[in-house]
Input
Amino acid sequence: MTQAADADAFVDSLVGELTRHPVNSNRFFQTFLSQRLTKSQLQEWLGQYHYFCKQFVKVLEGLLSRTPVDELEMRVQLVKTLHSELGSGRSEHAHIRLLERFATAAGLNETDLQRISPLPEVAEYLAVLHRLFIEADYLTALGAELAVEVTAAAEFRYFYPGLLRYDQFSADDLVFFELHLEAEDDHGLWLADAVRKTAQSSADLNRVATGAQTAVQAWQSFWEGIYRGVFSELNPPAIPWNN
Ligand SMILES: [Fe+2]
Output
């Protein structure tokens, strides 16, 4: 087998590992789909999730600025991902704006969202990504971003069908979730392509894998934190949706 074929097999196997990782069917996702959340539970989840989504794009901009000038293939795939996140040139279509459209429907306005302080696990996931993207070497960073994008596909297979069952939300309110059933798959493919074209040796590929594994572990903790925050006794089901 050629070296390129070896690298392809390594990337396929890493993407397969990320796709099969237990975080993709964690207990928060399963509970979200199997139970009807109260208004306060839904708002708690959404506030934390919005905080993460908003800050994440800025951290990704940091990774782009840290990518070496000669790594053109990696820079191209990162720009495509950022361009997509920021609405493909139309700010009103920026993904964070679409999520804020849903937030309005769920009873959280701009001021409410600005007041959110992150749960420790949410802050920690952003801190881990910041460290991997900005302080680690660019191959570790690339692996971390591959993991972010590949594992970001699963949540929408729970959130979108889960939210469709709430009468309060129109199709327009749910555009963010509907769109991401497809968008994140593209991002994962772009990043896998970036790895194939950037990692040149087995040492490079090992750094990619280390970044991916560190990121996916922090993503698992993120959802454990959200589960605790949303379903703990401190957040009782006080306000039924229809009242
Ligand atoms: Fe997005």
